[in-house]
């Protein structure tokens, strides 16, 4: 493949919006690695056929995954809360459909604590006499929803310059808190908790994301 063709393949094969300059950088790196590599087996070896087989399987599975995601988005778009999810900075069409699929109709929850328990990020404390153990999340809920939320918060932080987002503000307040700044994982879980509170309030009150509105979340009545 030429440098230009590799660049085009890279830009078309990723969901991330990488620049042409970055795509060329990756293309140059691939070309350099290909030139430095040395085949361990001959071109007609069985291992070559095996690698080609798995490559075809991977391509087929990737295409199938894309088809399923498109169907998920199509179904999600028919539901009234879809537009509310998509209004949240850092939550795109695909993530909105995935969150809706894993969380279901979150208006069924009376409060954020119930939603946290469903996802599995409610706090578990161990105490015995005067001993108080370190807090941990329960992890008894939906593991896929937890991963999605973790990814979503990370995406919000990565895209912080695109839109104002109070979740990102909260993340940095926790990281810079004195005298005991929070570790990254602790801050991320706290932001996941706050994101769920915001989503629940938005769905309950049928309101799109607004920086000022969600910065002082309206309490959800039981």
Automatic annotation (TrEMBL):
InterPro entries: Transpos_IS110, Transposase_20. Residues 87-160 form the Transposase IS116/IS110/IS902 C-terminal domain. One of its GO terms (biological process) is DNA transposition. PANTHER family: TRANSPOSASE, TRANSPOSASE FOR INSERTION SEQUENCE ELEMENT IS1111A. This is IS110 family transposase. It comes from the Bacteria. GO terms for molecular function: DNA binding; transposase activity.
């Amino acid at each position: 493949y030429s440098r230009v063709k590799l660049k085009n393949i890279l830009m078309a094969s990723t969901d991330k919006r990488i620049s042409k300059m970055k795509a060329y950088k990756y293309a140059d790196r691939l070309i350099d690695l290909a030139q430095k590599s040395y085949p361990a087996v001959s071109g007609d070896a069985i291992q070559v056929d095996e690698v080609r087989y798995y490559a075809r399987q991977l391509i087929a599975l990737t295409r199938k995954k894309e088809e399923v995601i498109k169907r998920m988005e199509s179904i999600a778009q028919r539901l009234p809360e879809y537009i509310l999810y998509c209004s949240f900075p850092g939550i795109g069409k695909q993530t909105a459909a995935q969150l809706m699929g894993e969380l279901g109709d979150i208006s069924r929850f009376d409060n954020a604590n119930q939603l946290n328990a469903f996802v599995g990020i409610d706090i578990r404390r161990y105490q015995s006499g005067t001993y108080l153990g370190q807090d941990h999340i329960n992890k008894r809920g939906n593991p896929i929803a937890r991963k999605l939320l973790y990814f979503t918060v990370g995406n919000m932080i990565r895209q912080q310059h695109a839109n104002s987002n109070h979740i990102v503000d909260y993340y940095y307040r926790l990281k810079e808190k004195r005298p005991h700044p929070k570790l990254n994982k602790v801050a991320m879980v706290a932001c996941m908790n706050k994101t769920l509170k915001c989503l629940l309030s938005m769905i309950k009150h049928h309101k799109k994301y607004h920086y000022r509105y969600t910065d002082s979340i309206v309490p959800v009545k039981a």
